[in-house]
Amino acid sequence: MQPYQNLLFVFDRDAPDTTPEESLMLVSPSSLEVAPPHDPPSVAQHALDIGTGCGFLATLLAPFCEQVHAIDVNPAAVRTAEFNARWNGLSNISFETGNLLEPVRGQHFDLIVCNPPFLITPVPEFSPPAISSSIPA
Question: d(Cα 67, Cα 87) in Å, to the nearest integer?
């Protein structure tokens, strides 16, 4: 459990066989860098949180928006984000599993936020190919 302002966020412990793509990050300094201010200058009718993770940004935006849409490609993240929103008493956030904008294709938003994921170590299938040190003659 991790508190922030008057909110609480929970995270499942990763199982030993959890892949990096299925892990959830705790609320981190990078999350706080992109977090909306305590009293945003304007209210958005429809906001979108791409790559919601635990739902941190969507949860912070919800009190200032008519509707927030939260998307993540990781189903475990979507379940956790939904739990965190409900636990914090927020009902104006919808949650979708999908890649980037796919779940909200054709919809319009006044505000879009994203705290993109990063992996501390390379994921093997995305590593660049080895470079040969031999120079052809």
Answer: 17
Pairing of strands 44-50, 65-72: parallel
Q: Which of 114, 111, 113 is nearest to 44 (CA)?
A: 111
What DSSP assignment string belongs to 41-54? SS-EEEEEEET-TT
Give the contacts of 59 (CB within 8 A, at least 6 positions apart).
7, 9, 81, 84, 85, 88, 90, 93
- 63-84 pLDDT, tens digit per residue, is 989 999 999 998 989 999 999 9
Count how many residues are written for the chain: 137
Q: Are 109 and 69 in contact (CB under 8 A)?
A: yes
